[in-house]
Amino acid sequence: MSDCIFCKIAKGEIPSNKVYEDDQVLCFKDLDPQAPVHVLMIPKKHLDSLSAAAEEDAALLSHMLLKIKDVAKELELDNGYRVVINTGEDGGQSVKHLHMHLLGKRSMNWPPG
Ligand code: DGP
């Protein structure tokens, strides 16, 4: 996806504050943080959203969850954290490349806005 901002970040064409990277995913600080810790984890493979994921992406999705848990530990979110996947219009998704938000270092509300 040549016009996808997160694909460009994944390729290093747009700079980001990297927190974690491996061959499948990149984790970086959110531009507009909603908590003292707010990072995004993206797959390097372009998927428009969680809705676009297929059975063949099962290992990738599992990898993302396990790595975001490791990042939470690395960032010392020992008191808890929230992982969010905004999906589609009603889900509040603004960037059309699957991403997980990791938010921490403050108490979260429920229900979310
Ligand atoms: P969402 O609303 O779930 O699609 O979240 C998209 C997030 O991406 C939002 O919190 C702001 C962040 N964001 C958008 N553009 C950039 C960017 O160029 N760099 C970084 N670091 N974050 C971005």
Describe the secondary structure blueprint for this structure.
Elements: H1 5-10, E1 18-21, E2 25-29, E3 37-43, H2 58-74, E4 81-84, E5 100-104
Antiparallel strand pairs: 1-2, 2-3, 3-5, 4-5
Question: Can you describe this structure?
Answer:
The chain is built from two helices and five strands; from the N terminus they run H-E-E-E-H-E-E. The longest helix is centred in the middle third of the chain and has 17 residues, at 58-74. The mean pLDDT is 97. Helix content is 20%, strand content 22%. The chain has one domain (5-104): HIT-like (HIT family, subunit A), CATH 3.30.428. Strand 2 and strand 3 (37-43) form a beta hairpin. The protein starts with a helix and ends in a 9-residue tail after the last strand. It has 113 residues and is α+β, with helices and mostly antiparallel strands. Strands 1-2-3-5-4 form a five-stranded antiparallel β-sheet, with helices on one face. Bound molecules: 2'-deoxyguanosine-5'-monophosphate. The site of 2'-deoxyguanosine-5'-monophosphate (DGP) has 14 residues, from strand 2.
